[in-house]
């Protein structure tokens, strides 16, 4: 019994354990993709490249220092798909499932772990929630794989190739991984609106957040039996922000490139290019064109969108949509002279407002620092670096093509950003955070002059 | 009487009146510098150039679309020096002085105006304060002008030229205006450590904030008669931040350019180059070298320093040192799990913490938006644009040389940034702010997931 007590007394916070789990996942993934069987014959790479690929896969970012198509064997592709699945749906979700399969009861400590990973702040039906997430996800991915597999028979010579491509594309899109085994993302489907539409739907499904999906499911269930269902404030804010960013993103991309990339394109070409390149910044990271063709302003708009990222409790990264929305609402309320932040006939908790600002500030410092360091260590134009940093922190995976040419310092910075982006700034802060202290003493308050 | 009542009922807030005063100052300045007598013969410029120069002078930024040395006559130089004085010490300070000279009592409304301009949050001795500020400032400037004037006899052929240069240099440095009539900032003094030291002292004097200067004065007075004097929390925070930024800035500038600009330079050359180019980003805007020679990382560090800017209630702009410091302290406290922000044995008011984050967020949105717009309207490398935007918002006036070549859109964006940078984000928000509402109704609180 002594040993168990000692183990308990280590008192790792749940966030620290999550981080540890991610670390283990990265290590295992690095070993798996480093197996000779995972690579095509004759392909060599460094340990740093393997770690980079593993972090990129576990965090479902999709930035790559090596071409996935040229490097991985068919077995390697399946291993990669498994890692994406694992990283995308969340290590904890899968962990729960494994516990359930083993018939073990989920204890308080494990439940706490899951809650932190998916940011759910209520205990109710947690195990059930995890099951639902996994079932829903696998269902959508299978449907996506079948539709794309059948459709890809037009594109690829053999049915094996078509279904392998369809399977990987579906998993990569639903988990918002942004990896591709076509060798050129979705550029070959630039004029295939069917493939793009399927991809947009899968991308939105992964990035909109699990709580939203589950509430939509509950809404449908309630609706069937004639009951009313109130969506949570969280779902309302995150969904509105998600689609607003999507539309504004597409408009800005079109506006800033109307006399450049969109010159001479038909309205439907322009619509799909702008829409897809906006959707993909939420978290997808797939692209139907070479983003380095865009103008600098568009690239900056995309960087900003990637920095904001996806919904909380989704497969995505960045500061998250709610964080951005709440900061905006707070600024608006403040400027209007209001003492509380009101939205959708609810009031926000001041602590959530403070949290949002802390998350944004730390994220800006982190990304700003990374840009300065990379400007020093790399030899690329500034916008290439900003774009790469935003993409890594948003775990988006779009790139203007500099990833394979990064120096070792550059690769390590990007690895750190992908990691922090995926676990979230909030968890990142928790790593260094001890127990919340009870403020045993107080000092007098004193006001200072601001701004 | 009816008319007076109607006038009162317009109910402009004091910040809106301040903004109005600045607008009037800009208009009058534009007219003054547009007078034919202010220009050298044969020099032509557009109205936009005149407005740009007027805003740059009133906000003591120092960005110029025309060369001050080539454009202004001797009378023009004196007009410009007067505008810098007026803008630097604050329209309200000078306004108070005029009121006093006219023998009028200062009423509550006027006092409120002054308080907002200088951000003082106590009523005591306000008129006295203004007098002290003005006296102190003029004294320092006269001393600076005499020292530099005498010293410049070594540099300029006639004593008139030497003292005109000395006078303008002293006013430009003390008001942190960053204008020069040498035609090349302080580059000709790159190896003259005496001129640089005098300039550094004048720059710090202007940028460190009036409350700090007055408290130092009070400290000395108390010390003489053997009493103890407690510096305010504000003075402690802003002074520490000011000098920390100064030192860290110099170190980072040296570090990122040690194999570029500083290559082959002696230790004292390196020290003065790094130190001066760090001090000048607080708000000075003078330079002893062409900043476009620096590496990209150094330019970004400088941009960041300019964005942070000077102390509140100083001649400077940006988000202000206290804002930056309080956000950092809050993040640190938050990460450590503390419920209050403690510093120098005092606790910060949660409202000041929120204010800081609001100011920083709005500033980032404003500058980020400006960078995106300028990337679209101008044809310069991104770092040139970021540098110019940070310089305008920080009312610093450093430039990599693109100011005269800006498009009309570009000039208008920079004008807006200089204006907002000088009045401060907080006042900027107040423009759209009505009266603080008493929250007549409440909604239920609901928590959401952040980050
Ligand atoms: K991704
Ligand atoms: K300046």
TrEMBL record, chains A, B:
Sequence intervals crossing the membrane: 12-35, 47-66, 72-102, 136-156, 193-213, 233-256, 315-335, 356-376, 382-401, 413-432
Keyword line: Cell membrane, Ion transport, Membrane, Transmembrane, Transmembrane helix, Transport
InterPro entries: Cat_transpt (IPR003445)
Membrane topology: Multi-pass membrane protein
Entry-linked Pfam families: TrkH
Presence of keyword Transmembrane helix: yes
Principal location: membrane
Localisation: Cell membrane
PANTHER family cross-referenced by the UniProt entry: KTR SYSTEM POTASSIUM UPTAKE PROTEIN D, TRK SYSTEM POTASSIUM UPTAKE PROTEIN TRKG-RELATED
Protein name: TrkH family potassium uptake protein
Species of provenance: Evansella tamaricis
